[in-house]
């Protein structure tokens, strides 16, 4: 029974992270659509692609561990994207506001990955999650720098 519980927890943890990655992918795409700056747009689309690749890697782990992978983003992610759409419609497609929302999304991803790393997971799973977590931290810091530059440019 304990092995089944641990197996289910591994699959559940991986599926939660797949949702997080899909949320990130869709969130970055949504934010990129709201920007006029083509270089920043390409940066956000690259982050979306990284999220997609992470989801594919986690999906392969779910399958390798005998589970059924998650195929869609979360309700919370969908609601967050709709919030971005509403804010953009009301406030305009302000670069600072868009980057603030990107950072907020990366805050959620950081929390999800930290929670996953606190669990007792097989080494092959833990290694992938830790590597991806480092990428999330890097993305978060890069988004924060871009956001701070946007704030400084308009101040």
Automatic annotation (TrEMBL):
InterPro entries: CHP02284 (IPR011971), DUF2383 (IPR019052), Ferritin-like (IPR012347), UCP029477 (IPR016920)
Domain of life: Bacteria
Pfam families named among the record's database cross-references: DUF2383
Gene3D superfamilies (alphabetical): 1.20.1260.10
Record-annotated DUF2383 domain positions: 9-119
The protein, known as: DUF2383 domain-containing protein
Organism, as annotated: Herminiimonas arsenicoxydans
